[in-house]
Amino acid sequence: MDKIYSKLYNFLEIGDGFSTVIMGVLNLSPESFYKGSIYNDLKSLKQVTTEMINNGAKILDLGARSTAPWSEKISVKEEMNRIIPAMELICKLIPEKVIISIDSQYREVCQSAHDIALKHDKKMIVNDVSCLKTDSSLGDFIIEENIPIILMASKKVPGDLCTIEQIIDEFKKTIKFLKGKGYNEDNIALDPGIGHWIEEKTHIYDLKIINRLNELRILQKPILVAISRKSFIGGTLNIPDPENRLNGTLSATAIAVYNGAHIVRTHDINQQLIEIIKMAEEIRKNK
């Protein structure tokens, strides 16, 4: 099978043979499941942004809406009110070769963020957990502007696919749709959607997806895992509080990288994480 390779904005190389890309989570949503990840004032956001960049983040994932299905819902207007000042701040802080990811399912939010990125000459990608199902016009937007996108496996609602076979099948359909519209498929990365998105998806499904992550290689796209402090760790280890799931996160991250993840989306960027990822990469190289 051919090697997986992508180059975003002509400087960020992602794929086989390259260091795992670390994506730091910048969470503006007080509704989110992990309260330790919420930065609801610009001072704390500035501090954590600087720390994540200094610790090796190449992508910063900025989100203002909790995507957990049990979370309180907010309007698109509220999402934009949270995103816009944060985006202005981050664009002033980050160096040229750090990319901002907008974690949103809505064109209006992503377009506003993109306008700010252009104003500051910064690079942006879209991270859509609905796989373009929530707002079909978001697909039109990324095609028109040729903006790279992370697609999370979803059929009708975010994260509603439970097996690797279902995930691959749905990704094939979305990739085919985008290619048919003339979109550059080299700008696509894939997230299998690990997490308790729907009631019937127990933690066992997530363990199996991580175990079979390598099967996503058939799609020839960089693979992202978003597993940081998620409920499957709590379910496996009987740890209900996300605050106490760091060890489980690090263990699952090492296994995901060994099984082929190219991008790791995480709340915690530190030397411990860097070393764990490096060890997993080196063991994978020497299979």
Radius of gyration: 17 Å
> How are strands sequenced across the largest beta sheet?
8-7-6-5-4-3-10-9
> What fraction of the residues are assigned to beta strands by DSSP?
15-25%
Helix content: 40-55%
The rounded distance between the terminal residues' Cα atoms is: 16 Å
Please tally the β strands and state the result.
10
Description:
- By secondary structure, the chain is of the alpha/beta class.
- It contains nine helices and ten strands.
- About 40% of the residues lie in helices and about 15% in strands.
- The protein has an eight-stranded parallel beta sheet, with helices on one face. Strands 1-2 form a two-stranded antiparallel ribbon.
- The protein has one domain: Dihydropteroate synthase-like (TIM Barrel), CATH 3.20.20.
- The model has no long low-confidence stretch (mean pLDDT about 95).
